[in-house]
Amino acid sequence: MIQFTSVHKRYPNGRDALNGISFEIAKGEMAFLTGPSGAGKSTLLKLVALIERPSRGTVLINNHNTSRIRRRQIPYFRRQIGIVFQDHKLLHDRTIFDNVALPLVIAAARRRDIERRVRAALDQVGLLGREHGLPVTLSAGEQQRVGIARAVASRPDLVIADEPTGNLDPDLSLDIMRLFERFNEVGVTILIATHDLELVERLGHRQIKLEAGRLASEGLS
C-alpha cells in the first residue's frame, strides 16, 4: 500500500526534512510513525497525501508512483486517502453532517449515497443523532471523532493521521486509537504520526521511528 524507496525531501530554503527513507507498509496494516518534533513525520505524511513531492527517490501509494501523477489528477488520487488532522479542521459554520459529507460532495456523490455514508460514519464513531448540531457543541474528543468520520465516509483504502490525539487526555487518546483499530480490522490501512510513545507501546502495532529525517528503527512496539 505504501512504499518509500531512498526518499529525500529538501525544501526551497535548503532544509533537508527527509534523508534516504525506505520502508513498506502492507495493505491492511496499521503502523505508527514516531520521533521527536522536527524528525520529519509531518513531511512524510504530506508525501503520502501528495501535498508535497519527493526531491529524490520513489513514493508508491497503492502501486501508483506519486511523481508521475499530474497536478490535475491529484484530487482523484486523494479520494483513496482519508486524512485526520490534530486540530480537526472542521468548518464551524457548517453542521456536523455537512462537515462529514464534504469529501463526498467534492467527489460529486449522489445525495442518497451521501446521506447513507455520512450516517454510517457517524454511527461508527458514536455520534449518530448529533449530525444536525454544530462542531462548537462538541467536546475536543467528539470533534476529533467527527474528523475521523469525515476521513472514512468515502471508504478510503488508506487513512493517515497527524498527531490525532495531541490535544486529548490519555483516556480520550486511547478511545480515538481504538477507533482507528476498528477501521483497520475491516481492512483499512492506517498510518498514524504520534509523539505519544506510551500509547504506542500499549497498543503494540508496528512502529516506524524517524530521527532528524532518517529512519532510526522499525518493528513491533
**Major sheet description:** 6 strands, mixed
Overall average residue pLDDT:
94
The multimeric state of the shown protein is single chain
SS strand fraction: 25-35%
SSE pattern, N- to C-terminal: EEEHEEHEHHHEHEHEE
The percent of residues in helical segments reads 25-40%
Instruction: Estimate the global geometry from the Cα principal axes.
Output: globular
Rg, alpha carbons? 17 Å
Separation, N- and C-terminal Cα atoms: 21 Å
**Care to count the β-strands?**
10
- Class based on secondary structure composition and strand pairing: alpha/beta
DSSP summary: helix tally:
7
Task: List the defining traits of the structure above.
globular, alpha/beta, 27% strand, single chain, 7 helices, six-stranded mixed sheet, four-stranded antiparallel sheet, 221 residues
Summarize this structure briefly.
The chain is of the alpha/beta class and 221 residues long.
Explain what you see.
By secondary structure, the protein is of the alpha/beta class. It has a domain at 93-155. Helices cover 33% and strands 27% of the residues. The protein is built from seven helices and ten strands. It has helices at residues 41-48, 74-78, 96-106, 111-124, 140-152, 170-185, 197-203; strands at residues 2-10, 16-25, 30-34, 56-61, 64-65, 81-84, 158-162, 189-193, 206-211, 214-220. The strands form two sheets. It has a six-stranded mixed β-sheet, with helices on both faces. Strands 2-1-4-5 form a four-stranded antiparallel β-sheet, covered by helices on one side. Strand 7, helix 6 and strand 8 (189-193) form a beta-alpha-beta unit. Helix 3 packs across helix 4, helix 4 packs across helix 5 and helix 5 (140-152) packs parallel to helix 6. The longest helix is centred in the last third of the chain and has 16 residues, at 170-185.
